[in-house]
Structure prediction request, 344 residues.
Amino acid sequence: MDNAIYVPLLLVSVLVTYLIRAVPFVLFKKKIQSKRVQAFFDYIPYAVLSAMTFPAILYSTDSIIAAAVGFVIALILAYRGKSLLVVALGTCAGAFVTSLLITFLG
Amino acid sequence: MIFNRGIKDGLAIGLGYLSVSFSFGIMAVSQGLSWWQAVLVSLFNLTSAGQVAAVGIMGTPGISLSGGMIEMAVSTLVINLRYSLMGISLSQRTDETMTTPARLVTGFAITDEIFGVASSQEKVSRNYMLGLAVLPILGWTLGTLLGAVCGNILPAIVTNSLAIGIYGMFVAIVLPVSRKNKSIAFVSIVAVILSIICYYVPFLKAHISSGFAIIICAIIASLMGVFLMPPKEDNANG
Prediction:
């Protein structure tokens, strides 16, 4: 791609993305006093992660069945309190083995 | 050491990013970027949906520079607006090591996943954030390079199976906290229901981008939590 187009467009995207992240993070240093607003910001991360995970997880591999198996394994491991990495690897392994089975049996 | 704990917590994210950015690398090259142009986009943006849109704009045939810059600014702003919310939320957990210079540096690394993991900590320090950011940045950049240079060498079955891991990690963050905290369980379930609606109702799916849908679902679910669940007594984080 021509750098005369690429470089300015890259700079705009990088600058805007960085400012969106850094400016609120720098400006909001005070602890929020309102209990309700505080609760809102306590909930946001979990709400974001939940909305991001489902149903997207079902479409994250080629096969919805393999993904569903991975998801169930994730639920079981997470319910048992396993670490992030163990749950992540277990999810991958579950989806991978199921995909292999589908490929060879189906 | 706190930095090392951050590194360790970032490993799962880094692995997930490696596979996701691999497909980004393939896509960027298909839009006409060279391998190093694709790598720089990933290294300096560190965001998935925003980058896909950015590369789409860069690759628009016959695009004018001024028009392209405006479109780039607006779309990047809208798609990445959620990071502002995350920065404010994260600010509620930072400790005294998180000075202004530290925020200017670590603020760069606020992504959905890094934010999610950092939020599962009781206190977020500068060194933890720095450690947490290392492997995701490495994975994101390296994955883009690999995807751009050697797109279709790995069998799809392997890359696909790696891509799901990042979602498994999200489950591992949300579920244990939801078991201990009813309000967070409620908010999480509402968020999933809303997300399902956004995904399967054709009109919504067609008109709301996925990045936007996530933030809408999260805000509505959190507001419902605020107004429908009893205020927290001891600690809302489990």
Observations:
- Helices of chain A lie at 3-27, 35-53, 64-79, 84-105.
- Chain A touches chain B through 77 residues (CB under 8 Å).
- DSSP finds four helices and no strands in chain A.
- Residues 3-27 of chain A form the longest helix (25 residues).
